[in-house]
Amino acid sequence: MKPNRTIAALVCAVLVLPVTTFGQAERTEADSSNENVIVASTKSKAELRRELWRAEKDFYSIYNDLNEEKMYDVRCTKDAPTGSVIKVQTCRPKFIDKALREGKISNSTSVESDPEISRQIATFREKLDTFLMENTNLRSAATALNQARAQLDAKNQAESRN
Q1: Residue 85: partners with Cβ closer than 8 Å, 6 or more residues away
Q2: Angle at 75 between CA 70 and CA 81, to 5 degrees
Q3: Is the pLDDT reported for residue 53 higher than 50?
Q4: Secondary element (H or E) of residue 60
Q5: Sign for the pseudo-dihedral over CA of 151, 110, 96, 115
Q6: Dihedral sign from CA coordinates of 51, 88, 38, 146
Q7: Is 88 helix (H, G, I), strand (E, B) or coil?
Q8: What number of CA atoms fall less than 13 Å from residue 28's CA on the CB side?
Q9: Cβ of 96: how many Cβ atoms within 10 Å?
Q10: Helix or strand or coil: residue 91?
Q11: Which of 49, 103, 145, 159 gets the most CB atoms within 10 Å of its CB?
């Protein structure tokens, strides 16, 4: 059973928010005066999308190495949503995949509607936050992931203005 974009978006929000929040919280007074400017890349959207996918895989690979509870490991897959030929990479913890297979959550329900899933999401976020605080390699990968996402977003925005 393949989840639709709603489930994918909810899962993505669960996984990305801790990374984005951490990256913003880590700014110091010295670099707060320097605003980061994202310049639209000369690379194609396909190239930027591939770089984002690699950055996601790198980030979650480091996370998975640090994580000892396999149900909280994150797996990334590429699938074309129904009605599309453009593949989308979805990264989600194994407990979400299991809940989808078992029918605890479906395309029409919120990921956090099940109390057990809500608890697992909270535990996942705590693990991720702890690993980000303690591991410089994971922080570097988070920075690379956020930069790759920002470059693709900037490219999308620049193209939508034209």
Answers
A1: none
A2: 145
A3: yes
A4: helix 45-66
A5: positive
A6: negative
A7: strand
A8: 2
A9: 26
A10: strand
A11: 145
CB 43, CB 152: distance < 8 Å? no
Q: Can you tell me which residue has the tokens 């194609």? A: 44
In the chain, the amino acid numbered 66 is L
pTM of the model: 0.73
List phi, psi (to 5°) of 18. Answer: -60, -35
- pLDDT on residue 100: 87
pLDDT, tens only, 56-77: 999 999 999 999 999 999 999 9
What are the structure tokens assigned to 107, written together? 């395309």
pLDDT tens digits along 4-37: 444 444 444 445 444 443 443 333 334 444 455 5
- Predicted local distance difference test score (pLDDT) of residue 107: 61
For residue 74, give the H/E element and its range: strand 74-79
The letter for the amino acid at 120 is Q
